[in-house]
Amino acid sequence: MAKRKLQVADLTPMLSPLTSLLDVQQRVSLIEQTTVHTFKKNEVIYSEGDDPQFMHCLVAGKVKIHKLGAGGRRQIVRVVRPVEFFGYRAAFARQLYVNTAAAFEPSVILRVPIAAIMLLMRINASLACFFVQRLATDLGRADERMVNLTQKHIQGRLAESLLFLRDSYGMEEDGSTLSIYLSREDLASLSNMTTANAIRTLRAFCTENILAVDGRKIKFLDVQRLEQISRLG
Known about the structure:
By secondary structure, this protein is an alpha+beta fold. Helix content is 46%, strand content 23%. The strands form three sheets. The protein has a five-stranded antiparallel β-sheet. The longest helix is centred in the middle third of the chain and has 27 residues. The relative contact order is 0.12.
């Protein structure tokens, strides 16, 4: 992890969803306490069991949130996209982190002290509502993902994950290729299946001309069919 210094003017647009709710004095105080960090591909941002000291904001890059399960198997429970805040729920719950965050690819992240956020929330109702809304939204998404990953069959789970990645990170300029390149292990972890099952299902989708795969690049050939498989499970 590398740390670098930016000016207040540089940080203001990055934190705009947050700073737009603050008055001038609150905004300056928060930005002065914010630091900028860069992370390499697969570098850990925080680990399960760490004491949460910061709220994070992803400025550029991609981040995965994963948790160690039974038998040492890692499950990706969430992905983070720019510009999104993460890593603050545990602090609000007065817990240690229950998961780990790592960079999918080289990423730039802002860190804001949790203590500063909590102090502002006590005097700024709009800011408190901002985080309540986001926590409620995240909980709803987590509930939906849990049902999808436990009730759908293997093909439905993989199709749902691919569409989830499309909605989270978008497509390349061709409009068909996912803009995130995942290892088979990460794709399997996101889809709650073994790596072998992920590889076999990807191969089946290619045989049926639903996808085209070139290394870690995944191109959608038949989006309607993929959506149907996801929907039917």
